[in-house]
Design a protein that fits this description.
One of its GO terms (molecular function) is endo-1,4-beta-xylanase activity. Keywords: Carbohydrate metabolism, Glycosidase, Hydrolase, Polysaccharide degradation, Signal, Xylan degradation. Its EC number is 3.2.1.8. It is a single chain. With 329 residues, the chain is an alpha/beta fold. The chain is built from twelve helices and nine strands. Bound molecules: ligand G3I. The site of ligand G3I has 9 residues, from loops.
Amino acid sequence: DNKGLKDVYKDYFPIGVAVTPAQLRDPAQQALILRQFNSLTPENAMKMAAIHPQEDRYNWQDADAIVDFAQLHHLRVRGHNLCWHQQVPAWMFYDKAGNLATKEILLSRLKAHIYAVVGRYKGKIYAWDVINEAVADGGDQPLRNSPWYQICGEDYIFKAFQYAHEADPNAVLFYNEYGTESPKKRDRVYQLLKKMIAAGVPVNAIGLQSHWSLTNPADDEIKTSIKLYSSLGLKVQITELDMSVYANEDKADSTGYTPQRESQQTQRYGQMFNIFRANRSVITGVTFWNLSDKHSWLNNFPVRGRKNYPLLFDRNLQPKKAYWSVVNF
Ligand code: G3I
């Protein structure tokens, strides 16, 4: 039969994938994307350094290619992302004299950036990751000590949502974060969101990145996070799903895709989607971070030269056993 993930899940939520423009031009990858998915996230093309390399110059080519493809094929697009501590263009944090920018300058640049990018795709991008990864993993200070924070304090977070809402009042605005299943970080993110909502900041949803492994996080932690954030009235999306076959800390391990790992992954993917389906009233999308094991950012990371096997399609774009456990329920 001709069904893909998007068809199997049509009564639950859209199923997305992170892509590059080059993938959309490759016939085999294009065919797989169109058969399986109904939502796209640009993996890198809309990040600040890529789309806004100089203060007076935007580079729309790659981002346009993805949005045009989506329009042509009636796919949704999630915009990723408007403000992050990585992939920031070098000019952003400095004034013309080469000194650290003031808060006033930095917020005016952030506003110009968000107005330009969100404005260009108004009506074509239905959801934006407005702020990405602003919360610290450890330490005493809940917010990440990035240049954004050092220069603006928490205001940059609040303002970014306000600017995005002004630029497209219909866009669904996300706070996107990883590691939200560990209690300390989960609570920090919760407190931040609660404060934003109390202050009237237009945040609509939380993106749980979900870069998981065969053993982490525990199912109960995932359920707890979904429940906690949705208790604030926020919608939830799984925005960057993958499942490394290595334990996070085990950098020495490169034993690969053993039959045992294959069966563990198959079972766990099935169980993850059980949890997602059970939460269909609050989950409004599930997106995989990359198309196949060949394209995963986890190849070479965090160990150079090591291959990973975190997705539902293998290096020949064929569905893995894990795919069938997600489809057959
Ligand atoms: O495009 C340049 C190229 O010109 C240059 O020669 C080359 C040399 O390193 O780098 C290329 O840029 C790379 C870029 O991907 C495009 O391929 C960067 O080095 C590389 O760091 C970048 O990695 C991306 C990473 O975000 C950046 O931190 C990954 O592809 C992307 O999958 C990853 O995605 C992030 C999400 O945005 C946020 N959540 C975590 C997730 C995984 O890290």
